[in-house]
Specification:
This protein is α/β, with parallel strands linked by helices. The protein folds into three domains: 201 residues, FAD/NAD(P)-binding domain (3-Layer(bba) Sandwich), CATH 3.50.50.60; 88 residues, 2-Layer Sandwich (D-Amino Acid Oxidase, Chain A, domain 2), CATH 3.30.9.30; 55 residues. The protein is 40% helix and 24% strand. It is built from eleven helices and 13 strands. The strands form two sheets. Strands 3-5-4-9-10-11-8-12 form an eight-stranded mixed sheet. A five-stranded parallel sheet has the order 6-2-1-7-13. α7 runs antiparallel to α8 and α9 crosses α11. The longest helix has 26 residues. It binds flavin-adenine dinucleotide.
């Protein structure tokens, strides 16, 4: 096959589809090949929680209405043991099965002129000739391996679908567990009578403890959200490559996006926003590099670091702090007292947030109060 493409995108999840969409938005005549080992629609193990930031990013490249027919969700409940906070979020999120959401994005990319082809890529040599390649092939990325980049910390999670109990309609529920943090169970109402329910936790470093079994993950879910396991079906698990302090992208013509780029929020396990944002950055960098005859890898690295660099550092620190139960409890208490802190925690967990002075002061004051109460209790 003697083919030549301007851009080949490997993986047609949110990262890959967004890369194709952004590239064609910037240059409609670009020859774009979008490869995936699966045909679409295809299922993907996920909580299906889609942050408002995703729709903003997509709107910026002329993609609107992918949430059409699904119900916005406004209420978030966070709990650990006896501590809990339930509030209305500043902006609604959507819970859209990935089977629907991802297929809509691929359809838009094809409408815009991308060629979709079903192909499992096992090595870079198999790819047709292309000026730029985007590796958006998920948590076990062949393209990332090709670049010789290791992953940082990883989590594992399992999800199923269960009927939504009346008391949880319109709500996203998160209940933290006691195992390796981040560890939590969730129930996200889809708005169509079903909820996405699941549980995930940090994986041990390779070669140390055994990874948690499927049975253990489901036991934890049942412990934190009783009744979910019996009511649920379509269970599916997957790895989550969590982001670290600094994000890496080498020079050259292979650009990484989404999970392949090791970008999942280490506090919350959310990765769709990063996938869309970095997919768009990759598509734009590809077009710019072709126009200006510059290095696409360098352009992509600068664009992503500019957009997400500070936020990634803040979420990294927040996730390390959240390994301590006392901090999680403190965060929940402060968020219950102060709606601005609640909004900031949501922003940090979903998208582009920072650890603010207000959040730190709230936590310190809360810890101080707890210490004083503890001392009084000791007497
Ligand atoms: C249980 C669970 C719950 C989660 N909950 C949420 C949530 O509620 N909200 C949120 O924002 N994030 C959540 N995440 C994270 C989110 O699912 C990912 O961050 C997101 O899917 C990343 O998108 P992506 O396009 O990078 O990768 P993917 O969505 O994994 O897409 C990668 C694509 O590449 C294809 N592919 C893989 N290998 C090859 C190959 N060798 N050749 C060709 N094609 C290939 C796959 O078929 C797939 O279509 C969750 C993850 C898990 C596991």
């Amino acid at each position: 096959m003697n083919e030549s493409w301007d851009l080949v995108v490997v993986g047609a999840g949110p990262a890959g589809a967004s890369a194709a969409l952004a590239a064609l938005h910037a240059e409609p005549s670009l020859r774009v090949l979008l490869l995936d080992r699966a045909d679409f629609p295809r299922d993907k193990s996920c909580g299906d929680g889609i942050a408002p930031h995703c729709f903003e990013q997509l709107a910026a490249i002329g993609v609107t209405g992918v949430e059409s027919g699904w119900t916005p969700l406004t209420r978030l409940e966070l709990a650990r043991g006896e501590q809990s906070v339930a509030r209305t979020m500043a902006r609604p999120v959507y819970v859209i099965p990935r089977e629907v959401f991802d297929a809509r994005l691929v359809e838009r990319a094809v409408d815009r002129g991308a060629t979709f082809r079903r192909q499992r890529v096992t090595s870079v040599d198999q790819l047709p000739d292309a000026a730029v390649v985007v590796g958006a092939d998920g948590a076990h990325s062949v393209l990332r391996q090709h670049l010789g980049l290791p992953y940082g910390r990883r989590a594992i999670a399992i999800r199923g679908y269960a009927p939504t109990p009346a008391g949880r309609r319109g709500t996203q529920v998160i209940r933290y567990g006691d195992r390796r943090q981040p560890a939590y169970a969730w129930a996200f109402d889809r708005g169509d009578g079903l909820s996405n329910v699941g549980y995930g936790e940090l994986l041990p470093s390779p070669g140390t403890d055994a990874p948690p079994s499927r049975a253990l993950l489901l036991d934890q879910l049942e412990l934190l959200l009783p009744g979910s396991v019996e009511a649920g079906e379509h269970w599916k698990g997957h790895h989550l490559p969590l982001s670290g302090w600094r994000w890496h992208q080498p020079d050259g013509r292979v650009l990484l996006a989404g999970d392949a780029a090791g970008l999942i929020n280490p506090m919350t396990g959310e990765g769709i926003y990063y996938a869309i944002a970095t997919g768009i950055a990759a598509g734009r960098s590809a077009v710019r590099a072709l126009r200006e005859h510059t290095d696409p890898g360098a352009l992509h690295r600068h664009a992503v670091r500019k957009q997400l660099g500070t936020h990634l550092k803040h979420t990294f620190v927040a996730s390390r702090l959240a390994e301590h139960a006392v901090i999680v409890d403190g965060g929940i208490r402060v968020a219950r007292r102060d709606r601005r802190v609640f909004d900031e925690l949501v922003e940090l967990g979903l998208g582009d947030g920072r650890i603010s002075g207000r959040l730190v002061r709230g936590l310190v004051a809360g810890l101080g109060r707890k210490a004083v109460t503890g001392l009084k209790g000791d007497r």
